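Milestone M4 deliverable, item 7.
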Amino acid sequence: FHKKNDFHLDYSTKIAFSEVKKEAIDLLKFGLALFSMNIAGVLAVWSDNIIFPAIASLSFLSIVGLAKSINGMINNLIYMISAVFLPYLSEVYASHKREGVSYTTLKITKISFFLYTPLFLFLVPLAQDFIAFYAGVKYLESAWILAPLLFISAIHVPSYSIWTKSEIAAKRPVIPTKEALTSQFSYIISSIILIPSLGALGFIISTIISILPFWIYFYRKSSRDNIMKIDFTAMIKSIIIGSFLSLILYLARLFSGLYIALLTLIPCLVLYLNLALFSNAISKEELEFIEKSSPKFLKNILTILHKVIIV
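Output delivered:
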């Protein structure tokens, strides 16, 4: 009798409906947020205005309060910046430059690494404070994701400058419908499955899964038309300079506190710009193009930085 009763007690644990409901709502929010980020990316490609899709997507994420509902949301916010900004910049470059597609691919990859290196590597020393403030201590495992995100997001870049209807990159790049839809849906599905269970690691895996259709298309087209040209030397230079300055920021954060690290960020940006020009990680002509073609908020920042160029 006692054994039977013990058996009954062991297996009579009830799961509260409120817990199930909360998990279901969180998962639904997560799916909706991923959908909104993908819509933002499409809007950015279709229009010349990067601000509207970025604000629309970020506003949606703020309204649902998703950062505190499921692990890995900070990662997806950073990924959204990649999905919105780089297609826009590569599209502008392709429309301004009438050289061959291979030239555009080469240049836009170089420019993207120049811009993305400080955006991601400089955030690494400050990521722990940012995530703890925004999403709570529970989500600190997301901090380490910022560095590998530089590489994951940057490999999206070359495709946008070769997705054209002609061999000359003078028209607006057009994303092939089949490959684009496959990539977006695979990202949403794999993220919903992997991120809740694996956290930041799940985000990396789902991102890699989502870019497979895109890279299969890219490889086939580039091998057929011989247009895969990427400036790896410039990439490596940007990464080395950015990593060195990130180490300075990290030491400033470690020994002097957050506010000193934030103040150190300004001279680090100035130093990064001058070292990038000195090492030819970016040219003055390319910097001027970025200034002219960027959204207004970025143009203002670059205009200020342009005045502190020493080399």
